[in-house]
From TrEMBL:
Signal peptide limits: none
Swiss-Prot/TrEMBL keywords: Membrane, Transmembrane, Transmembrane helix
Pfam assignment, any one: DUF998
Classification lineage: Bacteria, Bacillati, Actinomycetota, Actinomycetes, Glycomycetales
Chain coiled-coil ranges: none
Transmembrane segment boundaries: 12-31, 51-71, 83-101, 121-139, 151-172, 184-201
Protein name per Swiss-Prot or TrEMBL: DUF998 domain-containing protein
Amino acid sequence: MNRELFQSRAAGLVAFAAVAVCIAGFAVMHLTQSDVVNPVATPVSSYALTFPGIVLFPLSCLSLALACTILAGRSFGLAREGFIRFLLGATAVMLVFAAAFRTGTPETGLTWGAQIHRYTAGAAFVLLTVVAVLCAAQMRAAGTPDVVRRATWWAAALASLTFATTTVNTFLPRIADGGDWRGIPQRVLLVVLAGLVLALISGSQPTAAPVPAPVRVPARAAMAMAASRRPARMASPVASSVALSRESIRRPALAVSES
C-alpha cells in the first residue's frame, strides 16, 4: 500500500512541488539577506542565522528531503535500483539533520551542532552525486528518454566538479584563495542537485495496472478443452446421399426376410 502511494501520480506532483518550495526558499533568502550574507564568500548555511533564513533554510532542506523520500519509494525502471532508493532515503535523513542543526558563527565556532550540520549537509551532497552517476549509467539500458539521461549525466559531472571545489575551498582555503569565493561553487552545487532531483522525478515511473500472471494448463487438459470446444463436423452432401441409398436398400431386404 505504501509503495503504491509513493508511486502514484499525486506523489510525483508533491515531489515536484517540494523541490519548487526548496528553490523558492533559497531564492528569497538570497534576495532578502544580501546585506548580511555575502553570497560569494559565505556558505549557504549562514542564511539560517538571521531572519527570514531562520525559517526558510530548514523549510527548504525539509522540502528537498520530502522529495528524496518520495523518490526513494518510486521505481526508475533500472536494473539495480534498490541501492539507488536506499541512497535517496539516506539523503533525506541527512537533510533532516542539516535542517535540525544550524551552522556555527564566528563567536561560537564549530560546536557539535555545527559539525553535525556541516557533515550531514556534505553527506547529502555526496549521496545525491553518487545517485546521479548510478542512474545515468543505467538509463540507456532502461530506455529512459534521452533528455532525462543527458540531464542526469550533466548533473552528475557538474555536481562532482562543484563538490570537489567546495571541499578544497573549505578545508584548504589558501589554495587559489578559495576561502574568499567558496560560496559560489556551493550555490552552483545546490542548483545542480535540485535540478538532478527534478530530472529523477521526471524519469521515475508511476504505478502501472497489475498484469495477471498467466495460468499454466497441462498439455493433456489443454487438448481435452480444445476438443470439447471444437464444433462437430457437418456431413458432406455425397456422404449423405450414399447413406440414404444404403438405408433404402436395407429396408426392402428386411421386409422380405420378415415375410
